[in-house]
Amino acid sequence: MAGTSSAAVPPPITVTEASSVIRRAVESAGRQRIVGEVSNFTHREHWYFTLKDDKSQLECVMWASANARSTITPANGMQVILTGDPTHWGPRGRTQLVVTRVERVGEGSLQQRYEELCRTLREQGYFDEARKCPLPDYPRAIAVITSATGAALQDVLRTARLRAPFVRILVVDVPVQGDAAAPAIARAIDAVDRRADELGIDAMIVTRGGGSLEDLWAFNERIVADAVFRATTPVVAAIGHESDTTIIELVADQRASTPTAAVMALLPDSEGMTQQTDHLHDRLQFLMRRRIHELRRTVESHARHTMFRSPTAVIDLHRAALLRSVARLALAARARINSTRHRLSDARTRFERHRPAARHAAARERLFGLDARLHSAARRTIGDLRSQLTGADRQLRLLGPGETLARGWSLTFAADGTLIRSAADARPGQEIESRLADGTVRSRVISPGVSAAPSLFDPPAG
Amino acid sequence: MSKQPRKSVSKPPVDPALDAEVAAMSYEEAIEELEAIIDRMEKGETVLEDSLREYARGDALVRRCRQVLDSAEQRIEAISGQQLDADAKPAQADAPF
Q: Could you tell me the residue ranges of all domains in chain B?
């Protein structure tokens, strides 16, 4: 059946009516956020442009009332996020977006800004490990840059009290979130660094407790990164929770996951220091004792030397050595004298032999020699004779008549003094003299007679 | 005529000038010098008199290190970032944070 029902077919509507229908449909979609690239931008009282991606495009308008409040002026090629309401405008038959807000992609997103700054700073060497300075082993004082009312400061002070109560702490109060935070933190870092010597500060901690990316944002600002980069005082940064990594932590000389960890990294452990001190003290005493012991042993070993045990031993040793030296010296001297004399006499002999008066001199020498010998011989002879004479005298005294006469014998002399040895020598009437031990007797011979064998002990014939 | 009192040799005599000099040193300076003295003594190249003098100094340094470690009260000062930047002096924090 080809029959048509005229009642079922609606009557046609006008273009204007249709346009209203479409507008209502488009506007029912409600407010959108759309990302895309700006093109065909015309800068008049109202802003007209096209937002596009690689497949589609969308007409956009931003009325003067809206664009006056915008911080961003779009430009062709700019990646933007538009917030706006889609609509359909009948007079031109256009479907378009009425824009209320323009955000720039990369600035609009904190994450993108973070990534972009990270890239830039890495390229500029802000994160290089080589430029980071080592933390001091034993800081005298440290600065803590944080909020005086924050929980992070409590953690820092509690840990410091337990770990190293002898380290002075300077708390530098700064806002840690909001627009004022980043400049204040950067100024504080600069001030601590500038006055570090004056205040005796050897390192600083920049810290803040956990929060959202927006809360922590100050620590991702370039101005803070620059201050840390400039600082010559070592910086430890501990921002947010362990999972958060802020830019300041990447630039800092050391990153810590929490405020407590920052203190642990920076402050020495007093227990360890006490142990170290005790150890060094023990070592010092041990070494001193050992040194004294060594020296005492040396002294004692020297004391055991013979030299100290026998007081004269060393003198004896020296004396023996001296005598040996003297003996050798004497020998050497004699040998030298002898050889010199020998050579001299050789020379003289040879010389004399060639002299005209040599013979004469030799004769004279011989004569001198003989003369000397003669003298000596004579002297010897006289001596000998004298001693012989003495011996003879003693014998003479023994054998002489003295003792014989004393025994009763006598000697008889004639008048002329001759000794009458024989009876036959005596003549009668002859005067004779007998010598006895104590005197003489003069007598006259009566009758001499010779006996045949007179015995010495026979009484004389009278 | 009184007898000379016997001197103890176990402990080096305390020298006030030495103590004053050492008291001005930081823990780090003290520990570094102490280690240097121990190094020299380990080499055993010093004569007895020097050893004794170094030992006395080492003993003073040990006392200084212990003195640092024994100061139990933490000194906390506070200042605002702005005041610090304006070269103001930090104040002793009388109330705990």
A: 16-80
